[in-house]
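Bug #2210: token dump truncated for Acyl-CoA thioesterase?
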Amino acid sequence: MIAPVSTAIPHKFAIPIDVADIDFMGHVNNASYLKWVQEAVLSHWRSLAPVEAVAGHLWVALKHEITYRRPAFLDDDVIATVILEKVHGASAFYETVIRRGEEVLAEVKSRWCCIDAETKRPARLARSVIDRFFSAD
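Reproduced locally. Full output below:
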């Protein structure tokens, strides 16, 4: 089940920067970006999936590829834009772009595995659930 990127419904997620995110160099530690991506992707899932799908499925990150462009700082207003690129089997492929205004701070490609909440085994999503993440052209 593959859907083209051009029809994906983007999800904006405001990122709160905490003092604990700041490293010894005075900017956000790279590890915090992974935490942000997880929060943003799960927010995207909860915002568009039906309640019963959210209750019946969990997500596990399989892979993240991050390109860091610019540092983020404590008082920055940062937004993550999440796009579900495609779903194939039990895998979902996401792109997340983290910005401060128009400035790109990081770009993240990630692969997630959908897990059945009861059995804890990989699970395919119903087409009707996947379709909620894409608009009709």
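Output looks complete on our side. Residues 5-131 form a domain with the Thiol Ester Dehydrase; Chain A fold (CATH 3.10.129.10). Marking as cannot-reproduce; reopen if the truncation happens again.
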